[in-house]
Amino acid sequence: MSQVEESIEVGVPVHTAYNQWTQFESFPEFMSGVERIEQRSDTLTHWVTSVDGVHREFDAEITEQIPDERVAWTTVSGEARQAGVVTFHRLDDDHTKVMLQMDFHPDGITEKVGDKLGVVRRQTKGDLERFKSFIEARGRETGGWRGVV
């Protein structure tokens, strides 16, 4: 199992950053390698990804969701094994720190070499930077789900 931790400060209120993160179907707009996400229920998402020619489909279950604080998940079926949490930290009225922690299991020699070379860490950092650009350019979320899991 490998781990990655990255964070970024975004220039929006905590509720805006959190609300946008709950809009899983918009992830392809800022996450590289994510082709499609389908929200199948309040707690189940289906992911289709393609990273460096490796195509994967898997289901992830939201295991904990607390508005303006955290979203945690784990894969429950398919071709990927990972679990993680994204937390949201209010810095002031207009700034939020978004922290992502993820455990993942690289499968096959290509993913294991990529992991050793820091590919997942760089991709995660890039995804957070694109999230920052996406939410700051809009200035508001595309939607939000405020339920508790």
TrEMBL record:
Gene3D superfamilies (alphabetical): 3.30.530.20
Taking every annotated instance into account, which residue ranges of this chain make up the domain Coenzyme Q-binding protein COQ10 START? 10-129
Q: Which SUPFAM superfamilies match?
A: Bet v1-like
**What name does UniProt use for this protein?**
SRPBCC family protein
At the highest ranks, the source species' classification is: Bacteria, Bacillati, Actinomycetota, Actinomycetes, Kitasatosporales
